[in-house]
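User: I'm curious whether this sequence folds into something compact or stays loose and floppy. Could you predict its structure so I can see for myself?
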Amino acid sequence: CQQYGLATPAEVKDATEEYRQEEDVLGPFIQERCLVTPEAEVGATELYQEYKRWCDETGDKPASQTVFGRLLSNRGFPPRKRGRRRWREGISLPG
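Assistant: Here's the prediction. I'll summarize afterward.
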């Protein structure tokens, strides 16, 4: 029906999802190194340092801290600041 426009072909949807997964630099890091719960929190610098260690181990090139922060925000881990301390809500490191 013209009212709803053209449907996206399944091949395009599949290719788009595959691209997103391949370009997802945070997904594997979060799965392997992080705990995700609503009450979790972690220092922003501490989380970025762990991400850089993980990249060194996997051979991936780390995103800049600014890009890393933007990606975290896009995934629903908002930045918080109290005084000089910056952290992320909803995510933490084990231990």
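Summary: Helices lie at 10-23, 27-33, 44-58, 65-74. Residues 55 and 91 are 18 Å apart (CA to CA).
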